[in-house]
Design brief:
alpha+beta
């Protein structure tokens, strides 16, 4: 399973990340950061659908997103 984290204090709410998410799980939060922007988020119940593709992190102009993936265990 993969996990996405957003550095909300840096997010400007451009939502470019949501345009490239293959599972369409990134949405705009109702929360505002200290700069007054509505930030991007993945709801906890949608996190299990994340594939860990890192497209969101790659397109983010402000380096807001980190993607964590579990390592595959060898048999």
């Amino acid at each position: 399973m993969a996990r996405v984290e957003f550095r909300e204090e840096r997010c400007k709410g451009c939502m470019l990340c949501s345009t490239v998410c293959p599972k369409q799980i990134i949405c705009q939060s109702s929360r505002f950061n200290k700069q007054g922007y509505k930030v991007a988020e993945v709801k906890e119940e949608d996190m299990e659908n994340c594939t860990g593709c890192t497209s969101c992190a790659l397109i983010c102009p402000d380096l807001v997103i980190k993607v964590y993936r579990e390592e595959k265990k060898e048999k």
